[in-house]
Amino acid sequence: MEYTAIDTYDLNEIIKANKSVPIVVIYSADWCNPCKDAKPKVKALCNTYKCVYVEVNIDEAEELAEVYEVTKIPTVHVFLNGVLKEKFNDGNFTEELESKLAS
What we know:
This protein has one domain: Glutaredoxin. The chain contains four helices and five strands. The protein has helices at 8-17, 33-48, 62-67, 93-102, and strands at residues 2-4, 23-28, 52-57, 75-80, 83-88. A hairpin with a 2-residue loop joins β4 (75-80) and β5 (83-88). The model has no long low-confidence stretch (mean pLDDT 92).
């Protein structure tokens, strides 16, 4: 499944509706080149490991980025059972993300 969240309410509803599977949220922006590289990789991992993929454009969802203290993009959050369990925001997080999703 794939969603776009524009505020905290949207993300909370997505989390509530999908508690039984991992939810991977990527915070990005249209102008961010590293984000453009990361998004298809994260989406492919979500497809492989049957996760919910949520995209948040920080320019359109500033409040959501503030609530989750996103200070660098791309940032990826992984929710398990409705709880934020993992945060990734270094340049090469896809391997680490894959390792976490595979476990």
